[in-house]
């Protein structure tokens, strides 16, 4: 896949892809540090992200690459791309335009709190 | 798996597990927002995390559950647990004691920068 993706061999060699050829991606807002979403990339999506600074992913359900915001307008400008210690997860630090979540929420983690801080109480 | 895990049925029903029965987990430092690590949970690991507030995961390579810091002492106190919009990723907000990464680094994303900010230059 790397040969066709154009991804630099020294980066491709450090990736530990899953059985579908993908690495996990965590996307974080620059400045606030909010975790916006989690997604997947193949080599070509990573290469597209590195060269264009537009967050680009691989949809497992649709079986194709997609550029975040291409249809919604909720684009991501990518400031940093980091690879984790075992090479199977990428961290993007981005400026997110409008909501990152397809539901309209700011992040994909806004709606469903399973456990809250011990000392605080929820109102409303 | 839920029956044995003790996980509340209303939570178990919202999880969209992968073919190995796992959900992805993003772990973030409280306050700073740093993304510390990415890992996986089965139902029992999530239940253990919710009830003990100690970050508990499932190791795919070892095929067993593990409590972060159990051997290293680098424990995590869990302040918040959130589920994402499609139920396949959990976000933990934690207080991390010492380094989160098995390499000794503070986070698993410290060592390998694939792309840096456009305006800045790297020295050293």
From TrEMBL, chains A, B:
Cofactor: Zn(2+); Mg(2+)
Compartmental location: Cytoplasm
Source domain of life: Bacteria
Pathway(s): Amino-acid biosynthesis; L-histidine biosynthesis; L-histidine from 5-phospho-alpha-D-ribose 1-diphosphate: step 3/9; Amino-acid biosynthesis; L-histidine biosynthesis; L-histidine from 5-phospho-alpha-D-ribose 1-diphosphate: step 2/9
Keywords, comma-separated and alphabetical: Amino-acid biosynthesis, Cytoplasm, Histidine biosynthesis, Hydrolase, Magnesium, Metal-binding, Zinc
SUPFAM superfamilies the record matches: HisI-like (SSF141734)
Residues reported to bind Zn(2+): 85, 101, 108
One biological process term in Gene Ontology: L-histidine biosynthetic process
Keyword Amino-acid biosynthesis carried by entry: yes
Binding site for Mg(2+): 84, 86, 88
This enzyme's EC code(s): 3.5.4.19
Self-association and partners: Homodimer.
Function: Catalyzes the hydrolysis of the adenine ring of phosphoribosyl-AMP.
NCBIfam families xrefs: PRK00051.1 (NF000768)
Assigned protein family: In the N-terminal section; belongs to the PRA-CH family.
Name the UniProt record assigns to this protein: Phosphoribosyl-AMP cyclohydrolase
Organism: Halosaccharopolyspora lacisalsi
């Amino acid at each position: 896949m790397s040969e066709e993706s154009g991804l630099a061999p020294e980066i491709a060699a450090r990736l530990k892809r899953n059985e579908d050829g993908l690495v996990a991606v965590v996307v974080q807002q620059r400045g606030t540090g909010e975790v916006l979403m989690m997604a997947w990339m193949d080599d070509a999506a990573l290469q597209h992200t590195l060269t264009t600074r537009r967050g680009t992913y691989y949809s497992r359900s649709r079986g194709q690459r997609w550029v975040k915001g291409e249809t919604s307008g909720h684009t991501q400008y990518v400031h940093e791309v980091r690879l984790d210690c075992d090479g199977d997860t990428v961290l993007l630090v981005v400026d997110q335009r409008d909501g990152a979540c397809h539901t309209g929420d700011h992040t994909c983690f806004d709606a469903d709190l399973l456990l809250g801080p011990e000392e605080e109480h929820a109102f409303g």
